[in-house]
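User: Teach me something about this protein's shape.
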Amino acid sequence: MVKYARELDNNTKSCKARGSDLRVHFKNTRESAMALRKMELGKAKKYLEDVLAHRRIIPFRRFCGGVGRSAQTKNEGLSNGQGRWPAKSCEFLLGLLKNAESNAEVKGLDTDALYISHIQVNQAQKQRRRTYRAHGRINPFMSSPCHIELVLTEKNSDVKNETDPKERKLSKVQAAKKLRSGSKSKST
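Assistant: First, the predicted structure itself:
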């Protein structure tokens, strides 16, 4: 069994999926994954399908050198306007989301309540090719594959605030105001 970067808080309410040495650009995939963080499963799948159809865009925040600008990035909450539609990255991420969803169904989780609690993209070992240059020289022509891992977790719908049984301690000024207003103090 492979080790994930984040240990699961509740193993019964979570499911995992990962891909190793995927032949897809690391930088594009990292930006696509960051756009999906903390998103619900249904919304994430719809978002990636919209990116593939060029209806929505992936905002590029870190690896944005030379990335063109588009008006669609305003809708994604990015001020510099840089974004792209990385089709191959979105297809790989969509495949991983579907894999994780089927893992959740096998575990008996409610797929409508799942959200992406953890997604991470790491660089994998580069693959080497060569390109031929002028004057008989040869330069490297490297690919930048990546590892992707994600964790889907069920949302907790019933979160209750804990009631504090002991009373709050009052400061001297607050106690004096309370006495002046005529309400009973704690000691009497």
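Now, about its shape. The beta strands are 14-22, 58-59, 83-84, 114-123, 127-132, 138-143, 146-154. The mean pLDDT is 91. If you'd like, I can walk through any region in more detail.
User: That's plenty for now, thanks!
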